[in-house]
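Archive entry: two folds, one per protein. Generate the first.
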Amino acid sequence: MAEERRQHPDAGAETSRRRVMAAAALAPLLAAAPTPARARTAGPATEPVGFAQKLIEPVHTTLKDWKAVAKVLGGPGDLKRKVMYHTGFPRRDLRLLSHHVHVKPSLALGSHISFVRYADRSTLLMGDVVVTEDELQDFVDALQKHRIGITALHKHLLAQRPDVWWLHVHKHGHDALELARGIRAAFDETGTPRPKASDTSMPDDLDTGAIDDAMGAKGSADDGIYKCIFVRKEKIVDNYMVLPPGLGSTSAFNFQPLGNGRAAVSADCCMVADEVQDVLRLLRKADVQLVELHNHGLRDTPRLFFVHFWAVGDAVRLARALRPVVRATNVTPAG
């Protein structure tokens, strides 16, 4: 070997140059590759895989804690599970027709805003807002002016007059009143009425007991609409914040009476990725119309998907046909 190097003095230099060039070519690939130790890092047993940062838990509050927020929003809200301050803004100002059905506000035109207080004294705002197509751009501009994020822009209905859109909104901060003023300013760009308490009397032209038996959950009434609500069983996390059950992770089956035991159903089913195809197949088997498949959040873990759908027919028969959809997802009745 020594004799060979003496006969070819440039051989070693050439080999070194080749190694340097090979290393340079691999450098970008190595830099882009995930660090194995970090990629596999998991937090405590109660945390989803991939979380190295400690999760922030919501804390209990009372209606008194949200009195100033209610004043800014312009109407009363309620407290769900002692952690989620919720205010509904049904679009009572709109007369909307879809599939020859006059849609009641609580069936598919209900804007909702929720506030949650966390252990680090921060506040999370999340909501789903209904706007007309004419209101949409000004509403978006107002959200952006107040740095409120948009996490989804989509439809709940296949056909409607007037044209309406649904937006999911999101902001995390340390000043709950600032969050409330921001979303109130956005609402002021629309014709959304001020919130008021809903009518919880049961519809007298639906067999609600039979619907409950078929769905496997006790429903509730909201301004003439009968609702069966389910929440995911998993711990849902949004950017290190643990979401209370039902916040951004509900399956809601809403029945609007049409007379003679019939109903229009506008519903929203919450799924993880492995459940999506089974749910879509079961919905079509139930002869319902699919409207939209999408996400509500940007940083949720596990990743959640939602399908909106529509059906008209005998209310109890529809409820029985939808029960397999509930069974195909990892949910439990709310409340």
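Generate the second and append.
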Amino acid sequence: MTKTRTLCAAALLALTAMGASAQILIGQTAGMTGSVAASVNETIGGAQLVIDAANAQGGIHGEKIEVVRMDDAFDVKRAGENARVLIEDKKVVALFMSRGTPHSQAIIPWLDKNEVALIGPSTGAMVLHKPLQKHVFNVRATYQREAEKAVQHLLTIGLTRIAVVYVTDSFGKDALEGAMTGFTKGKATPTVTVPADRDKPDYAAIVPAIKDANAQAVLWIGSGIAVVDGIKALRASGSAAQVVTLSNNASSGFIKQLGDASRGVIVTQVFPSERSLGQPMVKEALTLAKAKGQAELSPAALEGFASAKVLVEALRRAGPRPTRAKVLAALESIRSYDLGGGLEVSYTPQDHSGIDFADLAIISDGRFKR
């Protein structure tokens, strides 16, 4: 009897070990609470559509994907520490979809130390593209491309008195560089450039600077609540200046937070319209969303969806029981991987850029419209 019990216990331990090994652990640190929570949680929802669909089909080579998520509340130091825990303690095979430029920069030392890939960071910072970051694999377009396109659009429609408000961190400086490229190409200069603290913007100084410059339009480079409160303060001052912000604010949550101040705000986009039902990636995402009872998508959800497709493809190419090294090699083997409708992602050992797509959408009736 004792021998039988011992054998049963050993079998149970073996099965438990097999079950544990049949999970592919992926790590994520992002601001699931805090100033960018609305858009972060929408990107997570979009990504989960892909991950759940893959798991429902038996996983990748029989192994299911489990994303270990840690909330950094959009705090740079917490993002770096979370990355350390995920990589060194949780032993994830890759990191996925961090949020924020300085936050992603804080993660890079842990990637480099442990030879771990970061797939689809939710930031368009040029610093993650050039010079090459060996372990960072971008999916979305750069902020510089977006900011340049936004300025060119405003100049094209005859708005020449353009103010630029930019957050004083690596994200803000990066996007400002793109904006200045747009001004240079348009043979123009901003009427005023106004720095803004990331956590506590001084609207009492920012808004008068915009009004004193008699700005017809404002390119507001910032994130989440900080931009929402800034736009509300601008409207409360009586300014009717056209406001443009970047795709890091392209979420349904951003529109809801703006409330009545949302109408007419332009938000740059890095993926096709979520209502382009003929676009294959959008159609696929919407089909999966509806199966979960979700009636519509947001631009943020589409970004998460696209990044998760790259993650799943990399894991598929890495083969059974993927290691960190296998995932890295798999990513660099990706050439012209079609996310749907001609949106292709390619990586080489010299280039880890993603999709070069930038568009504009205006908020109308509580929705983004192209």
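Annotation attached to the second fold: The chain has two domains: 23-141+278-356, 143-269. The radius of gyration is 22 Å.
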